Amino acid sequence: MTVKTKNEDDVEGLDENVDSGLGDYPIDTMMIRKETRTIFDVVRRIQNGGFVLDPDFQREFVWNAERQSRLIESVIMRIPLPVFYLAEDLEGRTIVVDGLQRLTTFQRFFDNSFALELGHQASLNGKTFQELPPKLQNRVEDCNLELYIIDAQVPERAKLDIFERVNSGEPLTRQQMRNCIYTGPASRWLRDEVEKPLFIEATGKSLRQKTMRDREFANRFCAFYLLGPDEYRKSDMDDFLARSLTKMNKMSESELEALSEAFRTGLQNNLNLFGNHAFRKHIPDQDRRSVVNASLWDVMSTGLARFSEADVSKREAIFKNAFYALLENHEFIDSITYSVNSTNKVQRRFELAGEMFSEVFDVA
């Protein structure tokens, strides 16, 4: 495994070069089924909320008028279109995996939101959908789309691996995929919390919004805070993060607010103690700031979320001594640096950190 020491997000302590999640999935089990639907039917389902097609959960709509127009022209000329990949969730919704730009174009054209820009087609140029002759309107509505739908029961890592393989645009990060698949109160919670100045300051502006690395870190806090490290199984971080989002989507507004309070408490305590070195390996009085460590984030964000700012402040000197001693523990450093997603490493780093918290705050 290649250890990531620094990347565009200034992050270490991640296992991202994971093997394909398809490895132990039964080869003869159907993971994807094929359906054929007309454009009219698909757009109707989008309008009724049956298809999740929100740019916040995948990618901003970026096609210009010319590209949209050429897609509609292809439909009118009966040119076969590439297939579309969708994924079902456990709530019965269908989420767009690959084809957001094309499906959004169809929706916008049916809504008469743009006119065709086809200078070489005088009979079509400047026309909205409602201005097309009925014959061509029917041709667009009746065009068949080939849909491949990923089953909701596919294991999380396998689902994300399929997502990565089929996406034909700029590759999505795994957190962007999760944000799409588990859209709801959970995804809104992540979005809102990472936009707050406290989160941005505590993480030193080191986590990229574009790739949703910031939301991934918030997701990790929620998973370890709500489920606990004992629930981390099979060295599968994808499954663990997904289970926390599923849980959050079922939580009440008051429960989510309590989670926010805990999250902010953890952030503020770390910031008060370590300033711009929060969630980073460092030594006392270090000048140069090292990179954010995701595994250190896991134990420190959740650990200090359980104690008030006043309690932490009273024990600041004791806590710092214990923390720096922990960073000299070779077993702990190994657990936040190498093969960090293995079950043994995850549980061991929480065990060692837990001993530190218990000693400092005199709790069982």
UniProtKB/TrEMBL annotation:
The organism's place on the tree of life at top rank: Bacteria
InterPro entries according to UniProt: GmrSD_N
The organism of origin for this protein: Rubripirellula obstinata
Protein's UniProt name: GmrSD restriction endonucleases N-terminal domain-containing protein
GmrSD restriction endonucleases N-terminal domain: residues covered: 41-182
